[in-house]
Structures are given as structure tokens and as C-alpha cells.
Amino acid sequence: MHRILITINEIELVATLLDTLTAEAIYNALPFEGQAQIWGDELYFSIPVGIDQEQDAREEVEIGDLAFWPIGSAFCIFFGRTPVSTSDKPRAYSPVNVFGKLEGNPKALKRVTPGSLVRVSKVI
To answer: Where are the domains of the chain?
Structure first.
């Protein structure tokens, strides 16, 4: 079971990765960084990984889910409703590959501003 560290300014979040092809590809590409984009209560940024949509890709996700958006080659962190949510749950713009889950409370992400540097690394 792989774990990763996500650092944005003073915020540090640890996540556990699932046993999926997407999770393995992302883990093998670490470390990387990007500029945070904010869409409702979703933080995302482009990463140097190209992965196809998996069979179980979906739009409705859970708070704290990490997902990969194949269309934009983006690492996504969901921490609340998005502009296309139809309930209290987050909803992706189009199907995403869920590949991990944050440990702890993702609400600290509400303090992140667009353009903030996001660093992702392995927890050894």
C-alpha cells in the first residue's frame, strides 16, 4: 500500500493510494509539482502522466477522494461540492479515475488560492 504527501504552502496532507493502474502510474512518476487550480471545492493541476480512463471511472466521488482526470492529465483532490454537484457530494466535470483517499480532514484545502504551488511526493 503506497502513501503520498501533498504539500501546499503550510498545508500537509497524507493520502493512501488504492491498488489500481492509475495509482501505480502516478506513484511511479513522483515527485512532481504543479500550480493549483480551484473549481468549487476541487483542487486540480496538470501532472506529467498520461493514463486512459479506467473501466470504473466515474463522475460522482467522495469528499477526500484523489482522482486522475484523463482529459486534462490532471491530479484532482475533492473536498466538497463542485459547480456540477447535484447533492452534497463532489462531482467531477467528466469521468475520473479515483486512485486514493486523503487521511484526515481535507477542509484545510478551502484556504488554498489558485496558482499555489502543489508538491506531491512519496511517503517512505
So the answer is: 3-122
